[in-house]
Design a protein that fits this description.
Blueprint lengths: L4 E5 L4 H13 L3 E6 L5 H7 L4 E4 L5 H8 L4 E4 L10 H12 L4 E5 L12 E2 L10 H15 L9 E5 L1 E3 L4 H12 L2 E3 L8 E3 H13 L7 E4 L7 H11 L7 E3 L1 H27 L3 H12 L4 H5 L4 H7 L4 E2 L6 E2 L6 H6 L8 H7 L4 E2 L2 H7 L7 H14 L4
Parallel strand pairs: 1-2, 1-4, 2-3, 4-5, 5-7, 6-15, 7-11, 8-10, 9-12
Antiparallel strand pairs: 13-14
Length: about 400
């Protein structure tokens, strides 16, 4: 059966928005797009399309039943850290069963298997989520597996890892990281396991139209082998200039994070001491006390600007042989131009150092999927969008 009208949930998101554009501007199906909120850039882009737009929640069973009365397919791109992923999926399944919907595609994520991959990942691999996002995606899939209400719609589940393209948070996040100073775990040797947004939409539409996809799970990834180092370098090439990359081992990153934790646990008391420094005698006493601590000099540089200016006029001993050290004043504008080099979150550390790959063989064999947009062309589109959007 070829669907005639599709209910698309999460239509204001990155993936849902692109599914809406593809169906509205180049496919045969008609579309009802469900938005959680009418605000935001995704809703604004959707409003330009010749589609029926509804505002509401996937938790609203009456709304879903009304919308599905005119539909014969569902693409579920709705997501939220909580009821949307679990109760919302269940409510959507119940409404789909009541409406006798035969074609149902549910967007999950390959992070249900965790962020660090060994060998080649296949759909049969066990769940091993290692963050909150992956945990909620797992719960959504478990709701589908356990559902027994009436004529079960038996959804096809799609699991991409890194989805990139125009309007994508991965791209804009990488751009800001490269612009301010990127740190790559293990030099970024890990496999990106990416899929360009239009290639993912191809998987979704094929699964929606292919009867054999019912009840099946598909990992979604492009053929191109790309490392995190290459991805960050390609993002950097879009910018006119950026700080050089820092390449650290996982151990070095872990040790630096521990040092930062110690620093952060000490800085607040130092700031409190600085805030109490008002009278000249109190300033002299505070400086003398701080001078007895070897790590006082770098910490004093982090106290609030007004207090630091007062303390910078004092001479602070470094704690060894009573030798004085003069703290240097810093220019705010110079600091804003210097690299920040924030250490990557643990999930990025795992991915940037992971040599494992995601298999797309099932998508090819069962759906007949082929990659249409190569990585180089996808990054070309990304660069053009960044320039058009004024982000460069």
């Amino acid at each position: 059966m070829v669907p005639t009208r599709v209910l698309l949930t999460g239509a204001g998101g990155f993936v849902g928005g692109r599914v809406a554009h593809r169906i509205a501007l180049g496919e045969t199906e008609e579309l009802t797009a469900l938005l959680h909120t009418p605000a935001g850039p995704g809703a604004m882009r959707l409003a330009r399309l010749p589609v029926d737009i509804e505002v509401g929640s996937v938790l609203d069973k009456e709304l879903l039943e009304r919308l599905l009365a005119d539909c014969d397919a569902i693409v579920n791109c709705a997501f939220g850290m909580g009821k949307t992923s679990e109760d919302g999926t269940r409510t959507l399944l119940e409404a789909a069963a009541a409406a006798d919907i035969e074609s149902f595609v549910h967007l999950s994520s390959a992070v249900v298997h965790g962020h660090h991959l060994d060998g080649t990942l296949h759909e049969s691999a066990p769940f091993a989520p290692d963050d909150e996002y992956g945990e909620w995606k797992r719960k959504g899939e478990e709701v589908i597996a356990a559902f027994e209400g009436g004529a079960a719609p038996d959804p096809a589940i799609i699991r991409p890892m890194i989805v990139y393209g125009p309007h994508d948070d991965w791209v804009t996040g990488a751009l800001e990281t490269v612009r301010t100073g990127a740190v790559l775990a293990e030099g970024g040797i890990g496999t990106l396991n990416q899929i360009y947004i239009d290639n993912l939409v191809d998987v979704i539409l094929l699964a929606m139209r292919e009867p054999a996809a019912k009840g099946e799970t598909f990992l979604a990834v492009d053929d191109d082998h790309v490392t995190w180092r290459q991805f960050y370098r390609d993002v950097g090439s879009i910018l006119a200039e950026h700080p050089p990359f820092q390449e650290l081992s996982r151990r070095e990153i872990r040790l630096r994070k521990r040092a930062n934790t110690v620093r952060d646990s000490v800085v607040p008391p130092v700031k409190a001491v600085g805030g109490m420094v008002t009278a000249d005698e109190a300033q002299e006493n505070a400086v003398a006390e701080l001078a007895r601590t070897p790590w006082a000099v770098p910490l004093v540089k982090q106290v609030p600007q007004p207090v630091r200016e007062r303390l910078l006029d004092r001479v602070i001993g470094d704690g060894s042989n009573g030798q004085p050290v003069k703290l240097e004043r810093t220019n705010g504008s110079d600091k804003s131009r210097s690299p920040q080099y924030e250490l990557p979150e643990e999930r990025f550390v795992r991915m940037q150092s992971s040599l494992g790959s995601v298999s797309n063989e099932k998508s090819k064999d069962l759906l007949g999927w082929e990659q249409r947009v190569a990585y180089e062309k996808g990054m070309e589109y990304v660069g053009k969008w960044l320039a058009y959007d004024g982000r460069l």
